[in-house]
Write a structure and sequence with these properties.
With 365 residues, the chain is an alpha/beta fold. It contains 11 helices and 14 strands.
Length: 365
Amino acid sequence: MPYFKPNQPEFNFLKHMILVGGNVDNPWNKDDFRHYVTHVNEHLQSDDWMFDTFAFWHFKSPKGGYLYSDVNIGTTMNGEGNFYAVPAPNPGTKQDWDAIIDWYFQPDTFADAFNQAVKEASLTLGKPEHKHNLVITIPYPGPLQSKFGSIDGKALNFSVQGQNLQKATEDRLAACIWFVNEVTRRFEEQNYEHLNLLGFYWTFETIHKSWDIDDHWLLKELYKHIDMKEKKFFWIPFFSSYNIHQLDNYQDYYFHAAFLQPNYMFYKAFTGVDEAAIAARERNAGIEMEFYTVLEEPIAVKDERLNRFDAYLNGGITQGYMKESAIAWFDGGRALYKIFHDSDERERQYYDKIYQFVKGTYSVK
């Protein structure tokens, strides 16, 4: 089976999807997007198109509620040492979900800034062949949230407090469907000239079921609704034996497209990206490229960051995913912008390396 192929018409020719977001105190503006929408040269001019798809995601809403699934309460990160994840302690309410939608569609930031960046580049580079794609993250309906708020006059409870698991899951689904419908409505109202709402992204990196949570049923029903809306549903699971198993026939049940994280950037014991690439190719998934400007998290590989990212780039050639696969990118928050403006040439060169990879011209260094 091939990788999840780039340039498919039913995905509006998606090739490279970059995750945009992180912290709510740092909104993206037009100039931020310009460094990703286009390649910016040494004269600070846009000279070519670069990323075609942008996925917006955030840990918290502007009102402070968690939109993410879990938090780490250990002192190490990414599964090593005493890493210990628990459900997000303050899962978002409907006010939080409303706030993140408002934020994404307010003037001069996020969707509007993205649209402006494409419009401005079109004056220099010529109008792109296809509209740029926008993907919006669905907030995770946290199982500790018993007072989410009301939708269509019905109060929703995501927990099993005072109700059974099926009722909790139905309420979680109702909230997610409302979010999909509301984002779609708001996007259509804006009538962005250069953007296409391609679909939605699910952040929890495994498909979980236990005594008090059932993401399996939720995702199957949500997948049907998103498909009915003629949108696409995306997932980026981490590399592990059970997530690889969940990628088996995933397009029949949960998601339209998935990208597998090699996690080589984070785990000392991992020896490379090849095993993840093979697993993705066998299951019609794409690959996620993981790049950071700095690794401030307490993990063992932070001093190996650039060498390890070279392995991702080189793997695109040796394992074929540079040209044969659609790619998702996680850069840790404005990494490409930061390295472009970095005074250290060792860092600066990666902006151009990534551009070459996106264009399919990168060669093993």
